[in-house]
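Annotated sample (chain length 421).
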Amino acid sequence: MSRVTKQKVNITSQSENLVAQIQLPASKSISNRALILNEILKVKLGKGIVLLNVSDADDTQILITAIAQSGGTIYLDNAGTCMRFLCAYFAALPGINVVLTGSERLHERPIHSLVKALQKMGAEINYLSKENCLPISIVGKQLSGGLVKVTGNQSSQFISALLLIAPLLTNPLEIQVEGEIVSKEYIKLSQLMLQEFGIPCQISEDYRLIKAYSIHQENIPETYNIEADWSSAAFFYEAAILAEKADLFFENLQLNSIQGDAILAKWMEEFGINSIQKENGVAISKIRKGKLNINKIDFTNHPDLAPAIICASAGASIPFCAEGISSLQVKESNRIIALKNGLDLLHFKVKTTENTLCHDGLAHAFYQNSCINTENDHRITMAFSMLAIAQSNIVLLESESVKKSFPNFWIEAKKIGLTVK
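Output written by the structure step:
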């Protein structure tokens, strides 16, 4: 889990016809939830279950290392999911005494609404430097549960973090969600996984009230298999949009997935990409060429798909407007700014607000190898790298940030002709 170092890299593409079998990483979102839930099973029942195909992403490895600790300072780099899940998990475990810290960017990412909800249940959490930000100290206690209020407009991970610890609470948990709700599909993912681990969970139709209860031992599986990651597949769908021809196969990917980002397959039909479920994965092919007319997509519930689709539409000369992207401002970087700055360097006309990014799909000058600052953000790096298929080449400020979610990205990208120098 090395910290990202900045070293300019030149990405070139050697093929316009993409034919490859791609090994996607296991879902980081599923892996991180499964790891926390498995530890809770061990606490409550004295034994866990066998987790199969756990992600090897840096974020997941950080989580694996952290959950084995019961004291001291834990460095989380820029792992926002780990920060929120571990904040709730450690707060609900009597005997724990830890400090959570991380990178400069992690210290800026929101956590206050989660801390406030935990404190209402009796948690002992204190800010050590700046109010409402990491670093924080946590002394684990038996928490009460009951009704808590959480804001929904910054991160669905506040809600998921609370749901995951429901079996550790003395009373059933009720979460009242206030304000706009982003990334609902990740809340749904948490619900489905709780149920698969024998923990009843109910979500109201409008997502305003969510309840979770104790473990039902008779419903716990012996093993749990983690799917391939749909969020990572987005970058290879992007490549298919940019290429002249594409026939790609994704091992272990499922169209009928518990991941909300599986909606990508449906969205890609509008971009001329067809997806077919095979016995051991998903095959995609480019079925339509020429000018397409996709005006806009609302990414409110699927923000991780935005960078790939925004860059794909630009590279394919499709005027496009991404809506519902306000939560991108508090990711590993401010992705709205990172995407705008990168596309500006490529001479696209880009207009942004706090919730939208629109571009005209037309390059207004010849690309001259300007170096794109990826802001050490894995999804920004992967999204811009695929534009090498449409441009003569792409220069990025760094290439190592992909390890956060997709450690073998460059190995898989090489299969479709991308070279890193």
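Annotation: The mean pLDDT is 94.
Annotation: The longest strand covers residues 356-363.
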